Amino acid sequence: MVQVVTVVSASGIDRRPKHKPELGWFVYLLAGTAVIGGFLFGYDTGVVSAAMLYVPKNNGMTPMSDFWKELVVSITPGFASIGALFGSAAGDHFGRRKVILLASSLFAIGAIVCGIAFDKMILLLGRILIGVGLGFASMIVPIYVGEASPAYIRGILVTGALLVFTIIPLKLVERLGRRILLIASDAGVLLSLVLMGGAFLMINRDSADVSHIESNDYNLSLINSSATNFAHCNSYSNCDLCVTDERCGFCAESGFQRISGYCLPIDPDNSDKQSLTGYCVTNQDSNGWHIHNGTKYEWADVYCHTRFTAIPIILMVVYLAFFSSGFAPMPWVLNAEFYPLWARSTCVAISTFTNWSLNLLISLTFLSLSESATKFGAFFIYAGLTFIGLIVFIIFVPETKGCSIDEVEILFMTEKDRQKIREEMKRPHLEPGNMYDTEMKEF
Known about the structure:
Blueprint lengths: L1 H6 L17 H10 L1 H16 L14 H29 L1 H21 L3 H29 L2 H12 L5 H5 L5 H29 L23 H5 L4 H6 L3 E6 L7 E5 L24 E3 L2 E6 L10 H17 L2 H9 L5 H30 L1 H22 L8 H4 L6 H11 L9 H5 L4
Helix pairs in contact: 2-6, 2-7, 3-6, 4-5, 4-6, 4-14, 5-6, 6-7, 6-13, 6-14, 7-13, 9-12, 9-13, 9-15, 14-15
């Protein structure tokens, strides 16, 4: 079998060192330089999430619908999936190092284009360049670091490639192993998503009711029943459902207590400031209130005052802690170890393409899914998908801690092939105490 030949030398002597080699500064410098792509990915994700709160308010970016918001965010993982596929052939033809340099260059150029963007199309172009660079980096960096790392620290170095900002997987990956860390992290993510869905459900139930405006209640000086989306917005039952719709906002008397109000269509040119009709159509005063007959009205197009508003923020921190401790880095570590050399680039490219394609799907549909299935419904759906992933991990993912890349192939052999290796072990030319005496006990 090819698998046996790649592990045992021609003389039958195990090629694994009897002692762990001492590592100099060059190994860590090499890995650290290669993993900058992982840092850039995390940085870009954080920046775009915060930037999308303000980009729609930029004069050159208006009007920016939910579709455009989803497109700006999702275009990067979309092109990352394409970059991952091309990165496989490029890595085999030109070498890992040159592809990493190309990815870094695309990152830099894309960041400059995004920085100077004065309209939506230029911003989209910059996000595309960043996406292609991200696809190259996410596909080639784990391979490069995995191939260049000794078995006993490979998990640490590859983990660093994807999550240089968390210490938990770096400390535990070689102690607990990939499988345990992945399953524990997945279970934590599942719990966080269920709690997140529950928190949004509580917010929905606690948000203020909508006072429906009937046809005989119209005050023609304030209400324009023919305004775009008026009837649609007026049909919602509470504030949370109202503000989840990008076309509507909630207008109520000012105050942080739970007060019934009106669900009104937004003013497309000033969606965060006023409605298209009703009590919140007037210009705001210096404190941001709309005043009518001495009564102050508050306009909200993205939030509602409830007793539970802070809970999703706290749970998001919990979710990120569980996600970054294993669910984020471990698939990349395992991806760098599972495949034989002749298929490694192709297999990692396919799996990376799948990852970014699903990222694209989530980014492109989150706002629409939240509107159609409600916010809490969306998170319950994500929790269901995570549960399926947990079952798959428990049943099919083997432990690769301490195995060389060649030895990992044995984990996926049939029992018949493993039996051949056991018979090979019994031959006298193999020294006692070699790798099979310890590793094959698991098989």
